[in-house]
Fold these 3 entries.
Entry 1:
Amino acid sequence: MAKVEIYTTPTCPYCIAAKTLLKGKGVAYEETDVSRDPDLRVAMTQRAGGRRSVPQIFIDGQHVGGSDDIHLLDRQGKLDALLGLAA
């Protein structure tokens, strides 16, 4: 199974949607709340190629984008393979 990291804030509906998708697939993830620590948000932004919005999602260290991006990957049938779920 892939290592999934997600940067979030508590009230972000897109964060909730992304986490719901991952939970629905039975995928564990490491969540980092960037709402109260400006240094964490700066680190996330640098790691995400300048993207400041949340969520920002990484699978095995590869930036895959935000909620819309992983939902698109799922609709395209590509997300399971990235997550290590495909046979």
Entry 2:
Amino acid sequence: MNDTDRAILDFAREHWQHAGNKERALQERFGLSSIQYYQRLNRLLDEPEALAQQPALVKRLQRVRDARRRSRRPAS
């Protein structure tokens, strides 16, 4: 993990009341669109080093991600 990856994890801990503010901050801080940010964050969530550095955050975000995936699956 590099410094940007660590900064992205720190950014993920922040709470945003307005999506536009978050998108603007993503562009200013990292030069990323929201899609690029979430793609990178999702890759980080699968990295053991990210889990070791911020276990509570990574586990919480993994649960959220997994719940969203389950809700998108069509019922059998």
Entry 3:
Amino acid sequence: MKKMAIAAITATSILALSACSSGDKEVIAKTDAGDVTKGELYTNMKKTAGASVLTQLVQEKVLAKKYKVTDKEIDKKLKEYKTQLGDQYSALKEQYGEDYLKEQVKYELLTQKAAEDNIKVTDDDVKEYWEGLKGKIHTSHILVADKDTAEEVEKKLKKGEKFEDLAKEYSTDSSANNGGDLGWISKDDTQLDATFSKAAFKLKKGEVSDPVKTQFGYHIIKNTEERGKYDDMKKDLKKDVKEQKLSDTSAVQAAVEKVIKKADIDVKDKDLKDTFNTSSSTSK
């Protein structure tokens, strides 16, 4: 959600740098004290943002050669951001234009594909994660504001409607996007409401609670899963560990740099010559 907002901050720098060259004398602003040329703008923008902008532009070209991002994927991600950001998304679109937002999303998706391709999960990673699940339960919930709504959801569950579908429809917190999934929780988790935790750990695997009132509203809680034998859980846990690694910004950046190091990058601008010294140029 924040990636779109952060990426858009670089828009002015990228547009300015790509629109002019250091030797361009075209006047873009006139004053009584003298004119400002495109060349002057480029030189100053390069000093303040040149390395970061060049890095993104080069990374996008290198990644696009290796990985494919479709218009359908871009549109889907934009739709997600529109839902998540609301008015902020509309403001970004109005300020920078839809084409620019699409470019930013394309870059994001390319980095994701590079991460998925290069971030590996070992058996030791999975075993360590499994060990850490001791005493925990995998929970989901549906959070609503009032008792009447909670009872309405409860009736639908008893009629056989899927917990995940109802969570997406009714739940008022961000877990709704994942069907109410809260991940693995422990009894001593201080970030959990005590009433919620007590109710959750009374449930058997697969069992769903009656509405539980906390300071946040009314919860219907489900014990989705409990720690079982390692061999039985290994496949699913490997996916969980991979997802965790993919959400680690530093791990994703390392994966991108791994791809960039293999590219033949030669920066011609003397002021930006050292931009890739800590990444791609070290592999030459």
